[in-house]
Structure formats: structure tokens, C-alpha cells
Amino acid sequence: MLKTGLPSFDAVFGGLTQSGINTVLCVDQSSKSAFTSKVVSSALRNKVVSYIDLDTAFSAYLRAGFITVQGTENLLLYTPEGKNIEKAVIQVCSVRHPTLGLLVFDSVTTFYHLFSDTADFGDLNRRIGLYLSMFQSLASRLNVAIVVTSMLRAKKAVKSGVESWFPSASGGRVLAKSSTLIISLNEQHQKLRITMMKHPRSELVGTFVEEPLT
Questions:
Q1: pTM: predicted TM-score of the whole model, two decimal places
Q2: CATH topology of domain 7-212
Q3: Residue ranges of the chain whose pLDDT lies below 70
């Protein structure tokens, strides 16, 4: 397991799974940035981190000093221009760096937004599925932890005969199938609440921890 640098999360859940995909579902940008900055900082202590930043929020916050990470010389930051995402994915997945410990793909929501006007939903799902398969192969080869983020949005649906609004993530079904571990993040009372949605140990599903939102 890869330690996140979040004491309560690591104590209860052991950290993030290595050789597999960890999906992070986020209600808001601040929660996502707080979590990813901690995980990246922790991994950079003795590993190389590759970060594909599609929505550029992490990069912007880092430049502005709103978030800080230690060991930035070992941070490989990719910010693909426009729709040129596959080149970054292929480049990252071809890396055979012996100390690569973490790959972050941020975010699936931005991917769907970028291509929504040129491709149908089924094609986008297939492309995300391909990316996740490539990430899984990388994780298995090099024992790398993969973090994939997606924003939660309200979606109208009918459940048990009742139409209502439910939280839904971009690429939800594809992510659910491909991920070993899924967590959701939200801010409550100036704290970051992290809830386990999927875990190899089923008894941990539904458990949550809280960390200072810093």
C-alpha cells in the first residue's frame, strides 16, 4: 500500500492500493486539491510521481502557492494542450523509471468535457477504458499506485419508481469496473471527509475518516 500522508486514512485503510487503480470521486475542487497534494507530497519523499493534469487546477494552485509539495524535482507534470491527451498517456505508460511510485490522472470529468462535441458517449467510454487498461498494465509492471479523479455531479434518475437527483461521476461505470479502491471526498466543517466506496476488504466499505482541510 502507498501511504497518503493523511494519518487517519492510512491508519484505517492502510493507504492506497499499489498495482491497481484508486478512483477519487470529488464533490468540490478544494477537497480534490487537498487530497491530491497530500498524496503527491507523500509519494515524492522517495518516489517519482507522474501527474497528468487535464483540468490544470493542480498546476495552477502549485504555481500560485495555494498548495505545496516537497521534492518537485521528482514531479513529472503533464498538461496536454487541447485534446492531445493520448500522447501524454502513451508517454507516461512507456516510462520504465525504477522509482516511479505514483501516477495521477486528473480528471476524467475534464476528458469527457473536452471531447463531448466530437465523439459519442460510447466512444468516450471506450477510450477511458483503454486508458485505464494502460494504467493498470503500468501498475502491474512497476508496482505503481494509480490515482484517477472524477467530479461528482447531480443527475436525475428513477430508482424504485421514484424520480430524484443522485450523485453521479463521469465515467462512473467504467471506473467502478476498473478500480480496486474507490473513495469519495467532501468538505464538512472545515474538515476533509473521506468515505470508502470500494475496497478489497468489504468490511471497510462505508467507513469514513476526517482529516484537517489544509
A1: 0.90
A2: Rossmann fold (3.40.50)
A3: 152-171
